[in-house]
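RECORD TYPE: protein structure
NAME: 3-hydroxybutyrate dehydrogenase
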Amino acid sequence: MASLQGKNALVTGSTSGIGLGIARSLAAEGANVILNGFGDLDEINKLCAEIASETGVKVHYIPADLSSGDEATKLVEDSIKTLGSVDILVNNAGIQHVSAVEEFPADKWEKIIAINLSSCFYTSQAALPAMRSAGYGRIVNIASVHGLVASPFKSAYVAAKHGVIGFTKTLGLETAEDENVTVNAICPGYVKTPLVEGQIKDQAKVHGMSEEDVIRNVMLAAQPNKRFVEVSELASMCVLLCSDQGKSFNGTSVAIDGGWTAR
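PREDICTED:
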């Protein structure tokens, strides 16, 4: 019997990359899944059909602009209408912009804070009451190693991810005496996704370096194990946190960073 049989999960930012990997793993464990994110609608519909065919669960797609609090709230409400409940909420959606503070565009700051941090508040606020009533709920916030340490030129992203960890701790305390309701964060180091693979090629051209040197000496300079975190590793941790075996994790942030924060 799959560990999440009959549960209903909403994963934000799940049409590609980390979110898609998590959605696939939750579906493989028996959870019905709502995908959310941007992309070509025909391709997303094919993706839903593919996951449903592979796992035998229900898979739906609901778009939402998570820079809007109203849309983030409505995403949860629509997911509950579609599946009957949201037992598992994975807040994964995020964007990035790299710039020195004095040159950082104000609109980029506002959007990064809205999508990476504020959307976690709105979706969690909408999902928690029903989780408490049902006696089961899992909220997993995909933070970042940058929620634990900082890097230059990423002020909005670092501020947002630090905020996600603080928010996770607060909700963990607020749900501590609720039956089987937990809120946790996962803090990955650099993860090899299609987006990152594109960045490797671009950095190699800009620096006149081999892709191997870019990976080791530029992108993974701060990551002691010198290898990317695999999406499957994050997905496995998310499944654990959502399972019965994960019920005593609460308000915590799990670093999957190859030793980055051990320094």
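COMMENT: The mean pLDDT is 95.
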